[in-house]
Amino acid sequence: MSYKLSKQDVCCLFEKLSEKYDIYAPKRVKNAGRFSETDIVQYDRISDLSEIVWDEKSTYPMKEVLSPIQQTLFYFTEDEYRASKGKTRPMLIFARPCDINAMKIQARIYAGNGGFVDMYYQRMHDLAKYILMPCNGGDDTCFCVSMGTNTTDLYSMAVKPVDDGMLVEVTDEDLAPYFEKAEAAEFAPEFVQENELKAVIPEIPDKEVLNALKKHPMWKQFNGRCISCGACTIACSTCTCFTTRDVIYGDNPEVGERRRVSASCQIDTFAKVAGGGDYRTTAGDRMRYKMLHKFHDYKARFGESHMCVGCGRCTGRCPEFISITVTLRKMYDAVEEIKKELGR
What we know:
This protein is α+β, with helices and mostly antiparallel strands. Helix content is 29%, strand content 19%. The protein has two domains: 2-60 and 86-184, no CATH class; 207-241 and 265-341, no CATH class. It has ten helices and twelve strands. The strands form two sheets. The protein has an eight-stranded mixed sheet with strand order 3-2-6-7-8-9-1-10. The chain has a four-stranded antiparallel sheet with strand order 5-4-12-11, with no helix packed on it. Strand 7, helix 5 (144-147) and strand 8 form a beta-alpha-beta unit.
């Protein structure tokens, strides 16, 4: 069902929803950008609808609500350990289609990876409902249409602000009672049909082509350009790599807490193993790993979509201005070159 709400109705609705739900949305943080006197937009709990940033893509992805950059897993002493307590209040999260599709990918990794379910992710995932925000096509780094993530039906509500209030579509029965007295209206969310930026996705047909691509000289160009800072993966909507860190309380090394902390495959020594072996020692090796993971390995394993949702945040956050779509094009050209050499 769809409804038209006045501005006063919208404020009343927010107050009623806040009694049960924690509400998260893109929120502006003044003077917190990487350059002097610049802002960032990141997901945070809001107390008023006026805090929502409607017309800009968030600097960091929605995934930080469900899988924070840093979270405590358990507390330990000399004799025992105790799992950390999770949230108990359900959440409503304002999100655009690409971020909702990213959560679909994260859920597949955290909650369906070989039958293992990550309890820390799952307990957050189970509390979340999504409110679909309108998207105007993003900025010049977005390419969601190319990735097929410009649409979604995985939302409990869809909203569209208008001059005199808000249009709302409700698809979740749990939320229907909040609209019993609302005025019915014709409304269905509209989705972006074209981005300014388009991506060409290489299709790797077999292992012979894949192995040749791994050895292709195109990856070496990143040795002199990528600084292995990891900014691209922290800004990524779907990256899930993490490490653990023990925080010791006081002088006793046997009392403290273990935290899960976001990690990056682009950082030097990420692939270092016991005994001192390191399987990806150059920036080019690490870039190759990331790109093949996003645009081949994930789809080969799970059989649905690629792991990238085309949000473009990695391009926007890279201090060296490395474009993921340009890198994709180079991958595509390399694959075509290899197939031609192999007579495919």
